[in-house]
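Handout, tutorial session.
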Amino acid sequence: MKVVLSILFFVTSLSSFAKGIDLEANMKNMGLAYKNAVQASELSEFNHAIDEFIQLLEKAKTADFKQHQSASIEGIDKVIHKAEDAKKLANKQGILAAKAPLKEIDTLRKKYHELHEPPGFWELLFGK
């Protein structure tokens, strides 16, 4: 009986692990891909970095957000849209044209990260 329960637990934990992603590691990789896109000096380098960034964003959409699920997905969609705009502009007008949408991505990042920041010390003591 113990063996059956152990196997059942193992299979259940594997299936739940397969569904979730390591959001923290994914976000670090997104940050690196974004940084590479911003610092790219050649179009091929930029396209590779921005494609990787978009792919990681799509992967992040599958994460299990504990709170603000719809707002988080909405934010990711906006960032994907801006990244695609940046890629189109870079391919049509050059890398410098992509700088404005890339800057907007950073603004969106700051806005939507506020949804998931833990409360501060004073906020815990006195509330909002």
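The second record follows below. Compare its token runs with those of the first.
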Amino acid sequence: MKRCALALALTSALPFTINPAQANTDVLHYAIGGGPVISLPAREARLDTRTLGIGWDMNLQCGLLDPKVTIQNQLNGVTDGFQDMMGNMLSNATSAVASLPGYFIQKRDPGLYDMLTNGVLQGKFDFDDGQTSCENITEEMAGVIQGSDYNLAARAQAWTQAVKTGDAVKAKSTAMKDMGDSGITWVGGKSHGGRNQPPLDAPKDAAIVGFDMLANNQDAKSKEGIYRYWESSEEMSSWLTNVIGTRSTQTGMDKSKTSATAGVGLSAEVTEQTNILEKELRLAIAENKESEHFPQLLIEAMSDSQVDDANITRIASELAISHSIEKALHARRALLTGKYEVNLAQHQLAQDEINQAVGLIEKEIDLLKFEAETRQVIGSRTAVNVVGHYQQVRASQQPTTPETDSVFLQQQLNPTQDNQ
């Protein structure tokens, strides 16, 4: 409707002194603007997913520290610590430590027993100091390394299970040995992110559960609501990943499923839909019959007006933009719905990632609108001015009736002069 109003306004404003039908066609062409509404995308195909692999090792786990190894190395002089206090005397005690229990060492050599006791205490102190430093740097890394907050959540959840034993020492040992391999409670109450578990991907998982919630009690065959564009939640999440990208992470030692995929934006979707709709429109015009997306009235109007190929592409492109924006809004609604799944709602980091995905979708929509409006304003205004100037020049060049010096013609044109 806006296109027709714009074309009528332009055609009424310009002086038509040449063929009106041809002039209307020219102005309509330039007012609407032939060809696609937006520029072609930088890439149409899906981008490959990249995983971290075994080369990435930033998963700092303090549970890997072993107090027995720490004290053993100190007593045997492998690492600095107790060795600095007792010198080379410990090298002579190594065999005794290995072969005699503590009770017999105390009986046989009380001095050696005291020395070993002090060594164990010193080693335990150094171990606690090292573990504390590890935990401190882990907290510092939480604000730097992506997914570290999930690691902290997994550690906290491991602690909640470990303390149920009632033994503080055993609880700490169990929690430290877990190292996030148990994952965290995720969508549907299932554990994700740990060893042999699905990775954590808040936007993707929220989109899937949101789709299922919106599609509840709806028939997929009806092609209504969210089923208008996708047949399943997996299909929608795949579309969303292709548009805005995705990033998954794991909480445990196994990082084989930690990956990232870049999105290609909505312009690729618009280009794909434009090609499909253009073929449908051309077939409908050729058969003079309405199609799924183009009514009979439009087909008849285009056939009678003999709209050129550029404007056919333009109409298909405009409808493709409308469909793509509608799909993006449906995906946005699925994200906002899935955001409040009871388990996802408990994780602030998941909420932040979902909000970021919603923001990316909104930004893609704004970019489409901005480019379409900018190309329309800049391209159409100049083109219409050129057409208007051209028509004025042609009008001024129209031939007029020349004056003649023939007396006979003058007498024929002015017979009253002869009677005078």
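Points raised in discussion: The first helix runs from residue 2 to 13.
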